[in-house]
């Protein structure tokens, strides 16, 4: 978890990128922009040196648009095992999902991760705590869903996990977390069976409105 005064996008030697809740327009960062790495858009491999990149570096844009990946399905099945009692092995599904994500992402540039086994061991150790199970599932879905936010958003609305996200910087001024979105004007205006929502705090039918969301 991040305290409110901690930068969300921090690197050694300074701050990089937009912090959570920064609604400023372009360009507060002048002529510098944070860019994507090899996954999923086919950019340059992020080696952590903070160096600049140019058009065509790395994989020259040979990436993908992730929609619903195999490891996301594993994490969703793990959630269902914990919350609905489907009978599947949630721990095995969490580890399977994390391993699939690591293997696929590193395959983009042919690299291997010597830290993968340590990471999976750490996930397994945390999962062994009864109170951490759903938190671990949600964190792994979140971490593996870069550029594919729909399933993360839905899971957060369903479960309230992960529950240690960085607080919004505009403390008290950000308003309630959007539990759903407004109907598009054509739908609300032309369908007489639909009333436009009064605000974004209206829960969808499959989510528990009593679950606190930040």
Quick overview of this protein structure:
The chain is built from six helices and two strands. The protein has 214 residues and is an all-alpha fold. It is globular, with a radius of gyration of 20 Å.
Describe the structure in your own words.
With 214 residues, this protein is mainly alpha-helical. Helix content is 34%, strand content 2%. The protein is built from 6 helices and 2 strands. It has helices at 70-83, 90-107, 116-127, 133-144, 150-159, 185-190; strands spanning 10-11, 14-15. Helix 4 (133-144) runs antiparallel to helix 5 (150-159). The model has no long low-confidence stretch (mean pLDDT 85).
How do the strands and helices of this protein lay out in sequence?
Blueprint: E1 10-11, E2 14-15, H1 70-83, H2 90-107, H3 116-127, H4 133-144, H5 150-159, H6 185-190
Helix pairs in contact: 1-2, 1-4, 2-3, 2-4, 4-5
């Amino acid at each position: 978890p991040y305290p409110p005064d901690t930068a969300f996008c921090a690197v050694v030697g300074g701050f990089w990128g937009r912090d959570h809740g920064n609604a400023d327009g372009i360009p507060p960062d002048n002529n510098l922009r944070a860019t994507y790495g090899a996954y999923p858009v086919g950019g340059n491999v992020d080696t952590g040196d903070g160096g600049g990149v140019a058009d065509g570096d790395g994989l020259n844009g040979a990436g993908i648009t992730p929609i619903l990946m195999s490891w996301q399905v594993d994490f969703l099945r793990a959630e269902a095992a914990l919350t609905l009692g489907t009978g599947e092995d949630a721990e095995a599904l969490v580890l399977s999902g994390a391993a699939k994500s690591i293997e696929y992402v590193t395959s983009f540039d042919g690299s291997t991760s010597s830290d993968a086994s340590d990471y999976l061991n750490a996930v397994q150790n945390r999962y062994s705590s009864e109170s951490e199970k759903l938190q671990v599932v949600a964190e792994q879905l979140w971490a593996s869903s870069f550029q594919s936010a729909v399933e993360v958003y839905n899971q957060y609305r369903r479960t309230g996990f992960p529950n240690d996200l960085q607080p919004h910087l505009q403390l008290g001024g950000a308003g309630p977390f959007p539990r759903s979105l407004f109907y598009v004007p054509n739908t609300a205006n032309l369908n007489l069976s639909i009333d436009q929502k009064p605000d974004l705090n209206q829960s969808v039918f499959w989510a528990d409105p009593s679950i606190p969301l930040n």
